[in-house]
Q: What sequence folds into this?
């Protein structure tokens, strides 16, 4: 057998050489698809949102929007979402929502088990995160946010990310 066939990874013209190397956009789509699956775990009456955090291109934490652990206030027989009862549109009067947002849930999950997300990337299966989540993302040291290119709920989020020098990448859903 030829030396070239034994060590195909040394041959930059070989088709297998770069099969494991993906573009940033391919990784972004891959992780956004996982975030979409995570969103399906949410019991929120308004929207299902999923998030995950990667550090060095490895998933370190996930989260979805919903009640905190041991607090079941979203869509139960004993409790109805106040925003749903008032007929409020998605994204408005979030202070009335008992749920933890997916982005914060992912950050807290990492913190609870002692994993640093500093320098990481947040993948959020939603539009640009709300102001509260934006503050948490910046404070956690996350430097890149990948989300969907949909109407933005909070006009302050993008300027906050820009001031913090955090990159925001938006993709069509």
A:
């Amino acid at each position: 057998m030829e030396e070239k066939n034994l060590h195909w990874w040394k041959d930059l013209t070989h088709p297998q050489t770069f099969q494991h190397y993906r573009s940033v956009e391919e990784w972004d789509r891959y992780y956004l698809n996982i975030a979409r699956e995570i969103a399906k775990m949410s019991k929120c009456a308004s929207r299902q949102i999923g998030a995950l955090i990667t550090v060095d291109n490895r998933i370190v934490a996930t989260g979805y929007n919903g009640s905190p652990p041991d607090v079941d206030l979203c869509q139960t027989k004993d409790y109805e979402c106040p925003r749903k009862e008032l007929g409020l549109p998605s994204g408005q009067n979030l202070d009335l929502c008992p749920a933890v947002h997916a982005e914060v849930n992912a950050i807290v999950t990492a913190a609870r088990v002692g994993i640093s997300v500093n320098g990481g990337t947040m993948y959020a299966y939603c539009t640009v995160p709300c102001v509260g989540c934006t503050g948490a993302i910046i404070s956690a040291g996350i430097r890149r946010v990948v989300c969907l290119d949909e109407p933005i709920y909070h006009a302050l989020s993008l300027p906050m990310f820009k001031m913090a020098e955090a990159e925001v990448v938006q993709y069509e859903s």
User: Anything to note?
Assistant: Confidence is low (pLDDT under 50) at residues 1-5. Helices lie at 3-6, 24-39, 82-85, 102-112, 131-139, 157-163. The longest helix spans residues 24-39. The radius of gyration is 19 Å.
